[in-house]
Amino acid sequence: MKKVEAIIRKSKFEEVKKALHDVEVNFFSYWDVTGQGHEKQGHVYRGISYSTAEIQRRFLSIVVNDEFLQRTIDAIIKSGATDRVGDGKIFVLPVEEAYRVRTGEKGGGSLN
Fold this sequence. Notes:
The protein is of the alpha+beta class. It is about 20% helix and about 30% strand. The chain is elongated.
């Protein structure tokens, strides 16, 4: 099992959510976040200058069985990209064990 943590543009969330559902990743947690990257490039939109660090972000936390890992990553990249600075990051971490609270079931089956 792996944990996929993705930081994406908030404006791309609905597209990413649909792409994840399309590859049968139906359960994940998310929340709005702010942070600071090392990109200092500013952009001008309709005459207003803004920093890429100030773009609204959404953090997704997804635990998947190993066979779902690559399709999860591909779905996020394909649907979340704008080809501009600040599209986000994806991190993959190992998960040692998972338990379903209601039944006590453990392992990969507890994710279904």
